[in-house]
Write a structure and sequence with these properties.
By secondary structure, the chain is an alpha+beta fold. The protein has 8 helices and 7 strands, in the order αααββββαβαβαβαα. The N and C termini lie far apart (46 Å). Bound molecules: guanosine-5'-triphosphate and zinc ion (ZN). The site of guanosine-5'-triphosphate has 10 residues, from α5 and α6.
Length: 180
């Protein structure tokens, strides 16, 4: 991507050979590689076998997982928090792996709706849980720095699968746990 970033600098009217910009294409390429490293990850590697037998039959929640992604329309950041709950079905997932799953999908070009669904579906697929709920709250720089320029609105998306979708008591308990 270095060559392309040099071209972008030129298109902007900049001089890519001036001192401050000499290493910019290299840095920008490295940063973009980091911001999209989710493309080089898969669930198996991320989970690393950290799936443990358990007879836990209560909702497990991990909330306020910070999230950094890039919107696929403008390639500008959207950032916020992800809240996850699942009802185990004989297996529990290593706690950090929930956050790693969030990162794997967030570090790709995304829209928030798809990101939310992909996280929920991955947790369902990996754990075979009875139900999964995922809520994402995020602020989109493409709506703040440019375009419609609204500073305070947040997008909230949710994906409820299995018993979180079919059983309103389970869903209510999840939402209550998040509030408390
Ligand atoms: N649904 C959804 N839309 C998003 C997300 N991120 C950015 N967008 C929207 O994608 C849309 C792209 O609309 P376009 O009209 O093609 O692009 P644009 O002219 O840059 O739009 P404006 O942002 O309204 O200036 C905008 O409404 C963005 O707000 C997201 O995660 N989910
Ligand atoms: Zn956008």
């Amino acid at each position: 991507m270095q060559k392309e970033f040099t071209q972008i600098l030129t298109q902007l009217g900049e001089d890519p050979t001036r001192e401050g910009l000499l290493d910019t294409p290299k840095r920008a390429a490295k940063a973009m590689e980091f911001l999209t490293r989710g493309y080089n990850q898969d669930l198996d590697t991320v989970i690393n076998g950290a799936l443990f037998t358990s007879d836990c039959d209560s909702i497990v929640v991990l909330d306020n997982i910070e999230l950094y992604s890039l919107c696929e329309h403008h390639m500008l950041p959207f950032t916020g928090r992800c809240h996850i709950g699942y009802l185990p079905n004989g297996k529990v997932l290593g706690l950090s792996k929930l956050a790693r799953i969030v990162d794997m999908f967030a570090r790709r070009l995304q829209i928030q709706e798809n990101l939310t669904q992909q996280i929920a579906q991955a947790i369902m697929d990996v754990t075979g849980a009875k139900g999964v709920g995922v809520i994402v709250e995020a602020s989109h720089l493409c709506m703040r720095m440019r375009g419609v320029q609204k500073q305070n609105s947040e997008m909230k998306t949710s994906c409820m699968l299995g018993s979180f979708r079919t059983d309103k008591d389970t869903r209510a308990e999840f939402l209550h746990l998040l509030k408390s």
